[in-house]
């Protein structure tokens, strides 16, 4: 039964990672092409996505999100198929994503005083991934 629960949790994590990958890809393409995101008329969304915090060394933060979500997807998929060593990489990746997410939420709340819907959606996905890490039974 423990194995079945692990498979279900890692499958959920893989699907969540795909959603994050799609969102991060969308935001990266918008940033690289100079297009504006469909924010539903939210000025704070434009303020966050157009801020200096939206790029690191000229690279959109969302591009790093693509790398992180793709890694999480790959690790979760392999973990679902029983590759035990990959579980550690999945956990490390998710905790790194969680730390960066906390920093970016801090920036939005206390420095920019504005929130981006896409950023909050990504934060929610990362929180769910972190919950999967916490809820996944250990391999002992």
Strand elements, count? 2
Distance between the termini: 14 Å
Give the CA-based shape.
elongated
Q: Radius of gyration from the CA trace?
A: 16 Å
Q: Could you state the CATH homologous superfamily? A: VKOR domain
Any descriptors?
single chain, 140 residues, mainly alpha, de novo design (two linked rop proteins), two-stranded antiparallel ribbon, elongated
3D structure, described in words:
The chain has helices at residues 2-33, 43-49, 61-80, 84-112, 117-135; strands at 55-56, 59-60. It is an all-alpha fold. It has one domain: de novo design (two linked rop proteins) (Up-down Bundle), CATH 1.20.1440.130. α1 (2-33) runs antiparallel to α3, α1 runs antiparallel to α5 (117-135) and α3 runs antiparallel to α4. The model has no long low-confidence stretch (mean pLDDT 92).
Question: What topology emerges from the helices and strands here?
Answer:
Blueprint: H1 2-33, H2 43-49, E1 55-56, E2 59-60, H3 61-80, H4 84-112, H5 117-135
Antiparallel strand pairs: 1-2
Helix pairs in contact: 1-3, 1-5, 3-4, 4-5
């Amino acid at each position: 039964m423990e194995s079945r629960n692990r498979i279900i949790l890692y499958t959920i994590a893989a699907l969540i990672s795909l959603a994050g990958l799609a969102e991060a890809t969308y935001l990266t393409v918008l940033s690289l092409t100079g297009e504006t995101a469909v924010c539903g008329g939210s000025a704070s969304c434009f303020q966050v996505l157009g801020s200096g915090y939206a790029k690191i060394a000229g690279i959109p933060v969302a591009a790093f999100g693509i790398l992180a979500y793709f890694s999480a997807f790959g690790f979760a998929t392999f973990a679902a198929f029983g590759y035990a060593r990959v579980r550690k990489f999945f956990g490390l990746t998710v905790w790194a994503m969680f730390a960066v997410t906390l920093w970016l939420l801090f920036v939005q709340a206390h420095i920019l005083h504005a929130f981006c819907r896409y950023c909050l959606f990504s934060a929610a996905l990362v929180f769910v991934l972190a919950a999967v890490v916490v809820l996944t039974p250990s391999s002992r």
